[in-house]
């Protein structure tokens, strides 16, 4: 920390999931020193990113497409162990192997221009006010306010994923339904639904996995989706992968909220899914019109009695802390060139949009590190860092 209570660093990485760790690895490989030139901040209680919150019955052999982090393979994993344990342990070993020194649990409250006054400055700010002497937006430092203090960073890699923003759809009658309503993020296993009548809402991988787990012990299950699900048979090669990513990337370029990569690739036709379709468990209905105290009603008069509604309806990017930077376009998304946001070259998003898959997150982490290094080395840091900070801090 300098005498203002703000710690100056080159780069702040927000999030220590797959994308954040990949970015930190490549920053270190380029020559940036962990906890000196860059810091990694993670709000989770332990290593593992969003994986640590997955339900216990999601064992490692059920995980689809987990890609190893750069520089260290995941080997010898017991396929019968919960994926949260396997991947959490792997991430922990990775952080220690490369000395990434992740700060946790640390909550990032906001990221703003160095020229803006910190929130709560009157009571909690440890030094002078932050003033417009920081220079034009996009050129000075970013003020990253966190639960452990504030950082003045020349660039930021945001890798916060989506787990903290589960999407809850709204239906008429939700407030009167007498059973349990929960999101897939709260799902802890099929035992909670034994002998229950369950409606699962959503057409993604989590919906299918959880439905197939619940069905054997439930009294009845009903699967509803907004659109008919697309099941993908046969190999999914590099060419198909590029085409799927391109569709997501196109939305991002237009400034629209990204769709998940899975939404354009379809559901892989695994043996478990094949059996689920043959048994009728994966027989899909369109969305119901409304909920009643005892179940759901469709517009054609169909009714289903239910004890629980499970919303496996996905997540949205967790980006509220970036709101002061005004990165969003009128369409609701953030336009990007690669991983760099077009509205602010200092800010890179990894694990967002087309890089939301595990292999995409690895590549995005490298691209962000290289792009930021190029930005910072083309605009060299003054020799006297404290003198520069003095220029953006007013007494």
Automatic annotation (TrEMBL):
It is an enzyme of class 1 (oxidoreductase). GO terms for molecular function: flavin adenine dinucleotide binding; monooxygenase activity. InterPro entries: Auxin_biosynth/cation_transpt (IPR050982), FAD/NAD-bd_sf (IPR036188). It comes from the Bacteria. Residues 113-137 are annotated as: Disordered. Its EC number is 1.-.-.-. Residues 121-130 have a biased composition (Low complexity). Keywords: Oxidoreductase. PANTHER family: FLAVIN-BINDING MONOOXYGENASE-LIKE PROTEIN (AFU_ORTHOLOGUE AFUA_4G09220), FLAVIN-CONTAINING MONOOXYGENASE. This is NAD(P)/FAD-dependent oxidoreductase. It comes from Streptomyces platensis. The gene is czcO.
